[in-house]
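Field notebook, page 208. I keep forgetting to write these up properly, so this time I am using the form the group agreed on. The chain and the ligand, S-adenosylmethionine, are recorded exactly as supplied. Prediction of the bound pose follows.
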Amino acid sequence: MSREAILEMLRSRAGDRVVEAVARTPRELFVPEDIKHLAYEDCPLPIGEGQTISAPHMVGIMCDVLDLHPGMKVLDVGTGSGYHAAVMAKMVGPEGHIYSIERVAGLAEFARHNLMTAEITNVTVVVGDGSVGLPEHAPYDRINVAGTAPDVPEPLKEQLRPGGRLVIPVGTSYQELLLVTRTKEGFKIEHHGGVIFVPLIGRYGFKL
Ligand code: SAM
């Protein structure tokens, strides 16, 4: 596939602002050197440590479901290569900010390098267990989780601002993408179809 083919495919699945953010984020800067020629394949790719950079269509769908706007504060759980955080950073603009948390220190370092190369300055990468969230910067307008969990982690729900949205894959052999919205009455859950993600490993995720 080419970069233009990826964008064409995304136009049928996501809104214009998502397509524009993906168009402005060079995926080749977020994949390891030896597989840069595969950067515009619409599939997950290995980034080391047994982990993957998500497929562009999945990043696009999750950004669309999250409904990101300029100025928002976002928590991103599972930084990986930093690509998904970079696309969200374009959508929230310079007045918004992405706090991205990764449990594997080597990947956090890889992501910081990639984000610097892509000249993205509104993402902060932190090392830790994102299944407990990142309370020091809460509440968040949006939370994005890029690993499948046994259930929606309670601390993530609690760190959402009223009206805030959380997108997360949940399940084991069958995983579903859930959208959790914090309402005046509590939490509303919508289902957005079957997905395949690596596990979220941590206190409110799967155990090692
Ligand atoms: N969003 C990433 C990208 O754009 O490259 C892809 C993320 S990859 C599918 C999932 C990531 O979640 C892996 O890097 C993994 O190490 C990380 N992870 C798993 N459990 C975690 C946890 N409890 N807290 C933070 N990161 C976690």
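OBSERVATIONS:
- DSSP finds six helices and nine strands in the chain.
- The chain has a mean pLDDT of 97.
FOLLOW-UP: compare against the apo run.
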